[in-house]
Amino acid sequence: MRVRCVKNLIETQSINTIQQSKMNPVSKHTRRRLLNGLWVTLSGLALAEIAWVVGTFLKPLKSNGSSEQPVKVIDVGPADLFLPRTVTAFPQGRFYLACLEDGGFLALSRRCTHLGCTVPWDPEKGQFACPCHASVFDIRGDVIRSPAPRALDRFAVAIENNRVKVNVGKPIRRSTFDNKQVVYRVHP
Ligand code: FES
User: Are the CB atoms for 163 and 77 separated by under 8 Å?
Assistant: First the structure.
């Protein structure tokens, strides 16, 4: 008896649903259009997001043409600390501070200008020797032996209150050594 009641109820609901759908073809059509519209909108949003992500990755970094160089200054200590004809490594800043024969200072990148290997200083020979392809540089970073195509990059040096400060924010590219690159302490 109970089973028959349930069966009748299901049959009645099915008939109602069929009748509703037959009676209201417009609402069915409208629903389909709404769903299609929603689908198109969501697809458009997804495509726009993908385009934005791809564009962000492919966009070249802004060139620092002029004054917008990042500043990160390392105070390496009193100028008197460094003796002429010596090179001191500063691994945290990835540079060497070279104190030249006349007491002038140069901060040199430790990155080889051939393919970027780290270049160690050889104090006995008084030169930088790249372990990768045998390029050699003198104490000023100039090329003694290729394949390195140009001198080691340098960093800006300033001496303030007898302290040597190196701006490691951006390496300065150069083809060769020039006396203008050397910084001297000013004696009062
Ligand atoms: S990376 Fe230094 S010589 Fe090639």
Answer: yes
Q: What is the pLDDT of residue 8?
A: 55
Instruction: For a ligand 1 pocket test, name from 110, 128, 132 the mutation site with the most ligand atoms within 8 angstroms of its C-beta.
Output: 132
Counted domains in the chain: 2
Helix (H, G, I), strand (E, B) or coil at 98: strand
Kindly report the CATH number assigned to the domain that includes residue 158.
Answer: 2.102.10.10
Which residue range(s) make up the domain with 54?
A: 2-58
Q: Is residue 142 part of a domain?
A: yes
Task: State pLDDT tens for residues 135-150.
Answer: 999 999 999 999 999 9
Nearest to 81 by CA among 57, 105, 65: 105
**Ligand 1 nearest-atom number relative to CA 116:** 1
* Residues 147, 159: Cα–Cα separation, whole Å: 34
Dist. CA 136 → ligand 1 center (Å): 9
Residue pair 108/152 in contact by the 8 Å Cβ criterion: yes
Integer Cα distance of 52 and 25 in angstroms: 41
Residue nearest to atom 4 of ligand 1 (CA): 133
Instruction: Confirm whether 188 is domain-assigned.
Output: no
